Amino acid sequence: MPKTKATYRPEFRAEAKRLCRDSGQPRSTIARDLGISTDSFRAWMRRDDIDSGKREGLTTTECDDNGQLTKENRILREEREILKKAAAFLSVLPRKDSGQAVPERPKGRDVANIDVRSFGV
Known about the structure:
With 121 residues, the protein is mainly α. The chain has 2 domains: 10-57; 62-93 and 105-119, no CATH class. It is built from 4 helices and no strands. The longest helix is centred in the middle third of the chain and has 32 residues, at 60-91. The radius of gyration is 29 Å and the shape is rod-shaped.
């Protein structure tokens, strides 16, 4: 059976990091004493060093912002694709008030590869 991912309260993490900084003991000893995986504890310490500016890298806030911007970018790209397909579909429909000859509506799929029959027109 797979192991479940342990979650630790922020207070516990902060206390463990403070203990590491103040005690001068090796990280592996502190992690073992607290019952934490040494890799997890090392990652906490690295993240804390980055957030405090002692180490190069993206801070937690920057990573969160980057994730949010990536999500927004994906949504905007999807919306743009939908609008391009809608514009292509609407461009082949006749205008009633234009007085122009009504072009023949495409059968099946149009230039934007949209199934026009699904719109019920």
